[in-house]
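Sequence design from tokenized structure. All designs in this work follow the same two-part layout: the structure record, then the generated sequence. An example of the structure record is given first.
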């Protein structure tokens, strides 16, 4: 997966919700879908929650990037399945993290590769998974600027 073509510009994601509940209507280009929280969290479970959407972005980007690389190399990859889970962990439980004394977001990502790939190809595709643009965004410094309209 690559960045958007030059000149295409970023698409705007529009999220609208009533102040009376948690359900949200999301539109991107011609696509529309719902987002919500589970009933246990005060929502009505009419769609995935925000962390589910974040994991879906990472999972789809991972799968697309790995498949595109394998196609370019003409490797025998038949399918990619990515399973993701999000949780909060104590910083002291993370041996590779710099932050200490607080909770950290923790994402587990399992990549399943179907096809007659050798071990070297599988290892390389796992490395490529970490190069997907969404993974790079999530592991980089992010600048979010919020304005009131």
């Amino acid at each position: 997966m690559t960045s958007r073509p030059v000149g295409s510009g970023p698409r705007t994601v529009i999220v609208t919700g009533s102040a009376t509940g948690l359900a949200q209507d999301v539109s991107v280009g011609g696509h529309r879908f719902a987002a919500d929280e589970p009933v246990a969290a005060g929502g009505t479970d009419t769609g995935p929650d925000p962390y589910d959407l974040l994991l879906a972005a990472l999972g789809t980007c991972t799968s697309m990037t790995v498949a595109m690389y394998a196609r370019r190399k003409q490797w025998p990859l038949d399918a990619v399945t990515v399973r993701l889970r999000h949780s909060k962990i104590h910083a002291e439980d993370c041996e590779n993290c710099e932050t200490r004394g607080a909770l950290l977001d923790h994402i587990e990502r399992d990549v399943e590769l179907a096809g007659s790939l050798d071990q070297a190809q599988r290892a390389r595709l796992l490395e490529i998974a970490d190069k997907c643009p969404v993974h790079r965004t999530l592991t980089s410094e992010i600048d979010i600027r919020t304005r009131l309209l």
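The longest helix spans residues 50-73. We note this feature because it recurs in several other targets discussed in the main text.
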